[in-house]
Amino acid sequence: MGNATGAEQKGWNALHFAALMGGNAALAVGPLFVRHADSGPVSAGFWRLLLALPVLFLLARLNREKLSGFTPTTWWAMAGAGVFFGLDIASWHIGIGMTRMANATLFGNSGSLVVIAVGLYALHRAPRAGEWLAFALAIAGSAILLGRSLEIGQQTLIGDLFCIAAGLLYAGYILLLQKPRAELGSWALVAWSSLAGAPVMLVTALLLGEPVWPTLWWPLVALALLGQVTGQGLLIYAMRHFTPLVFGLALLTQPAIAVALGWVAFGEALVPIDFLGMAMVGLGLALARSTQD
């Protein structure tokens, strides 16, 4: 998570905040394309990483980011982060097909709580009063968004558990990237971690007996460009400018976007209380952001 876990970050501006929210919006759209893909869900994750690689390395080169000559510690950290990320996407894509889009997105970001806790521990302080309130609002709002889904039954619960596992793996990915951020730019970091994660996803897909080669390419290309290039690229760019609390709570805006997409694309019911949940998450994020000013 770069410097965001080691010191208070207050050098943000409108561009940084737009990157933070834009990255979350791009990632929230991901489940829509996974459901449209005719490959297996883990295979879709493999193509997400593989198809994004040429674009990511090109962007790193165009931005004059360092792409080689790293220390062994950095190489190992990137490799470990790639493994965590590959397993995260594999688990999340399996869960997407077994639960609501809002659940998949929220539980897929459950690791944000771990990131917040580790970040505050690194700062050697407890959350401030305003941060506690922001945290409570975001969690309560998220609980409202997913509350009705948890009652659907065992199949949904299994999907939720896969997404929770994905969230914890994603936290490991973020934390392992702390040291590499000192040497790498944002695009290079996403590129190398994607390269390390792609073989993990391919092997997992083959072990699960999934069809790997698709006949429908547009969902996978969209997933690569929006989820991996735009989503991960913008989030890693934004990380250094925000405290762990703001960054972690920003991840919880994804269910608000996903629940709306689920309603539009798949007819998943959206009722007035869902709007209340969205508003509470947004208010929590705004309050947390104001504590950085």
What does this protein structure show overall?
The chain is an all-alpha fold. It has one domain (12-126, 153-243). It is 73% helix and 0% strand. It contains 13 helices and no strands. Helix 3 runs antiparallel to helix 9, helix 4 (72-96) packs antiparallel against helix 5 and helix 6 (111-122) runs antiparallel to helix 11 (244-251). Mean pLDDT is 79; it is low at 1-9.
- Quickly count the domains: 1
Q: In this structure, how is the largest beta sheet organized?
A: none
- Helical residue percent band: over 70%
Strand content: under 5%
Uncertain runs are: 1-9
Find the count of extended strands (DSSP E, 2+ residues): 0
H/I helix tally: 13
C-alpha-based Rg, rounded: 18 Å
What coarse outline follows from CA principal-axis ratios? globular
Structural class: mainly alpha
SSE string, helices as H and strands as E:
HHHHHHHHHHHHH
Kindly, what is the distance between the CA atoms of the first and last residues, rounded to a whole number of angstroms? 20 Å
What is the residue-averaged pLDDT? 79
Which features would summarize this protein structure in a list?
disordered N terminus, 293 residues, 13 helices, mainly alpha
Topology:
Blueprint: H1 14-28, H2 30-36, H3 41-62, H4 72-96, H5 101-108, H6 111-122, H7 129-147, H8 154-176, H9 186-207, H10 218-239, H11 244-251, H12 254-266, H13 272-290
In short:
This protein has 293 residues and is mainly α. The protein is 73% helix and 0% strand.
